[in-house]
Amino acid sequence: MDSPALLVDTYSLFFRAYHALPPMNTTSGEPTSALYGFCVALIKELGQRRPSGLAFAVDAPQRTFRHEQLASYKGNRETTPSPLVAQFGRLRELLGAFGAPAFEVPGVEADDVLATLATRLRASGREVLIMSGDRDLFQTAEPGVSVLFVGARGQKPTVYDARRVEERFHVPPERLPTYVALVGDNSDNLPRVPGVGPSTASKWVRQFGSARLLCDAAHELQPARLRPELLARREQVLATEALATLRRDVPLGSGPLCAPLSAAALERLRELFERLEFKSLVPRLASLHATL
User: Fold this and answer.
1) Domain 5-169+247-284 belongs to what topology?
2) How many other CB atoms are there within 10 angstroms of residue 247's CB atom?
3) Of the CATH numbers 1.10.3720.10, 2.40.50.140, 1.10.150.20, 3.40.50.410, which one belongs to the domain with range 173-244?
4) How far apart are CA 268 and CA 42, in angstroms?
5) What is the tens place of the pLDDT at every residue in 222-232?
6) pTM for the whole thing?
7) Is the pLDDT of residue 1 over 80?
8) C-alpha torsion angle, residues 81, 87, 92, 94 (rounded to 10)
9) Residue 71 pLDDT more than 90?
């Protein structure tokens, strides 16, 4: 069987690279730290995993349907630093050099694009590995779909299949939106039910499943002292579960869903790396060439 297709959560890795590395600049003063860190992480995985195909998902600049439904969605995030903004243009050039599809769909997030890509590739019989630092994507884990989770600096990327996700959160991946509706999500600024912690949330979700079934059975919940808290926030819980659920029906057009890395792409990358003064990465491209 072919190796899995690698789907990349572009901005997740790009932002993490920026915050993980000290400032870097070319001799002309162009900032490059996020670009360099992104390339290091991706080339390493391409070399080790030799994916059968590659695709990128990019967040569109427009507000998404989640922002329209919850004004405070991601409202706690800081403004993007100007040295990082200055690298966005080069990032587009970099993705183009890889020669793989880069999907950007207004109104939805890259996570929704990745969930849709994974669903469509699985339907065609392909296995999928999603590379991201976003825990929201754990809900996509299922037979044939795993998440290569890129954690904090110094931690090795970890592959999460459905079993590993359930071991960590004590609920199956498809029920993670219900779990989030109870415990909240600081990263996305999603509200929680006061008093409900991870242990209680996972117990309730395992027992009842969806947020609606859980709320309908509130009179059965233990501990009983939390019943009023849940009932008072019934609509919030239902809305948060919907917001936390990734879409799998994003329109992606009629082109290929992924593409293998080619010798022509490696040559384009070599030229770009030389212009960006990524001297240490050029030999790694030669190693990748040997795997084609």
Assistant:
1) Rossmann fold (3.40.50)
2) 17
3) 1.10.150.20
4) 16
5) 999 999 999 99
6) 0.95
7) no
8) -130
9) no
